[in-house]
């Protein structure tokens, strides 16, 4: 299961239900895929095919939706 938290600017932001415990979000689009740590701070973990410009755009979206992402994580994993 990989719940989508939100979609924006052509990117899908989601996480996998059975993965590592450290809070993070996956990002997917037709151009590539990335993973960002959310805690202890927002940080790129993995990048597959995104340009620096795209990564900056994604990071801005993560920052703008940080509360939504962390809330969705906590809600999903508190089950």
Structure report:
This protein has 79 residues and is of the alpha+beta class. The chain has one domain. Helices cover 32% and strands 34% of the residues. A hairpin with a 5-residue loop joins strand 4 and strand 5 (43-48).
Sequence-ordered SSE layout with sheet pairings:
Elements: E1 4-8, E2 11-14, E3 24-29, E4 32-37, E5 43-48, H1 52-64, H2 66-77
Antiparallel strand pairs: 1-2, 2-3, 3-4, 4-5
What keyword list fits this structure?
single chain, 79 residues, alpha+beta, 5-stranded antiparallel sheet, 2 helices, 5 strands, globular
Which range best describes the helical content: under 10%, 10-25%, 25-40%, 40-55%, 55-70% or over 70%?
A: 25-40%
Structural class: alpha+beta
Total number of helical segments?
Answer: 2
**Could you give the count of β-strands?**
5
Offer a concise description of the structure:
β3 (24-29) and β4 (32-37) form a beta hairpin.
């Amino acid at each position: 299961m990989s719940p989508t938290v939100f979609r924006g600017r052509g990117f899908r932001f989601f996480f996998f239900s059975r993965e590592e415990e450290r809070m993070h979000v996956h990002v997917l689009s037709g151009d590539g895929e990335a993973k960002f740590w959310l805690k202890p701070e927002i940080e790129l973990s993995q990048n597959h095919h995104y340009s620096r410009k795209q990564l900056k755009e994604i990071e801005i979206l993560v920052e703008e939706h940080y509360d939504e992402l962390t809330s969705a994580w906590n809600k999903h994993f508190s089950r």
